[in-house]
């Protein structure tokens, strides 16, 4: 049966299946502004800047870009500085997105959106996003779609998870085989061994595309991405960011640790990610 209409601000869509509810704000890049599981809110708000809250798509690039520019058809193309000194996390995270498809059912809820990559990006294109919620499972799809040319891109998700959910502090794990050492300007400079302890604001190469966050005795979130990179930010005491990405920061140019991925006409660049939710009994 369809769910009753939501009492939500204009531009927001609620997806609900069982005891999981996700609110997507189409006025702010099609981001999640709430993700509740069994009555527990998972998402954190660090600040009011669009970079600082919820769970948002990063496209057509993720993270920082060297010299805040990309090599476009006419040569180096400056990208607008949006956060601190950086052109950070792409062009769409604060844009109004158009809804193209909505499903509300008892066992399946979905919203799909589309937005232009914008005039500051040197190639015409669009970002298509899908949030598909099924029982205790969320599947997200990000796609960079172009009509002409070969266009570089890095796609990713930036969730701000609460450090504390219920009475538990979150712990994360992944099978990383290497970490990118930050050099000048916090940009990757060298692929190195993974340190034993953080805190981190770093990119990790994860060949199996898997990561987990556990709030012991409350909830676990198992993340599976078809990309092989995650950025982890856990330097703040109240939040943990585990960010699946199709490529590393500064990934719009070839580096020793990464070859650029491209979208082509009829062959979009896509990042698929599943987020499986499970209860954790006390003592686990």
What's the SSE blueprint?
Layout: E1 12-17, E2 20-25, E3 31-37, E4 40-41, E5 55-58, E6 69-72, E7 75-78, E8 98-104, E9 109-116, E10 126-134, E11 137-145, E12 151-153, E13 156-159, E14 161-162, E15 164-165, E16 168-169, E17 171-174, E18 178-182, E19 188-192, E20 201-205, E21 210-215, E22 219-225, E23 229-233, E24 239-245, E25 261-263, E26 269-279
Antiparallel strand pairs: 1-2, 2-3, 3-4, 5-13, 6-7, 8-9, 9-10, 10-11, 11-26, 12-25, 14-24, 15-16, 17-21, 18-19, 18-20, 20-23, 21-22, 22-26, 23-24
Care to describe what's here?
Strands 8-9-10-11-26-22-21-17 form an eight-stranded antiparallel sheet, with no helix packed on it. A six-stranded antiparallel sheet has the order 14-24-23-20-18-19, with no helix packed on it. The chain is 0% helix and 48% strand. Residues 1-5 have low confidence and may be disordered. With 284 residues, it is an all-beta fold. It has one domain (13-279): Beta-galactosidase, Chain A, domain 5, CATH 2.70.98.10. It has no helices and 26 strands.
């Amino acid at each position: 049966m369809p769910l009753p209409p939501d009492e939500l601000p204009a531009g927001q869509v609620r997806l609900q299946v069982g005891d999981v509810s996700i609110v997507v704000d189409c006025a702010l890049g099609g981001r999640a502004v709430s993700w509740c599981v069994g009555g527990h809110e998972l998402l954190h708000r660090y600040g009011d800047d669009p970079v600082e809250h919820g769970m948002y798509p990063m496209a057509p690039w993720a993270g920082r870009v060297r010299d805040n520019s990309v090599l476009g058809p006419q040569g180096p193309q400056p990208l607008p500085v949006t956060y601190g000194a950086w052109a950070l996390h792409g062009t769409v995270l604060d844009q109004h997105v158009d809804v193209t498809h909505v499903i509300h059912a008892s066992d399946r809820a979905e919203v799909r959106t589309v937005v232009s990559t914008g005039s500051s990006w040197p190639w015409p294109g669009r970002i298509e996003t899908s949030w598909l919620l099924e029982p205790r499972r969320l599947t997200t799809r990000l796609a960079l779609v172009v009509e002409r040319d070969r266009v570089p891109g890095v796609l990713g998700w930036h969730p701000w998870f609460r450090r504390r959910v219920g009475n538990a502090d979150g712990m994360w794990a992944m099978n990383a085989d290497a970490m990118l050492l930050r050099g000048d300007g916090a940009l990757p400079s060298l692929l190195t061994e993974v340190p034993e302890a953080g805190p981190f604001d770093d990119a990790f190469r994860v060949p199996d595309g898997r990561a987990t966050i556990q709030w012991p005795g409350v909830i676990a979130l198992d993340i599976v991405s078809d990309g092989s990179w995650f950025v982890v930010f856990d330097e703040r005491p109240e939040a943990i960011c585990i960010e699946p990405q199709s490529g590393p920061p500064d990934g719009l140019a070839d580096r020793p640790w990464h070859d650029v991925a491209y979208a082509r006409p009829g062959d979009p660049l896509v990042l698929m990610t599943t987020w499986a939710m499970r209860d954790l009994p006390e003592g686990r």
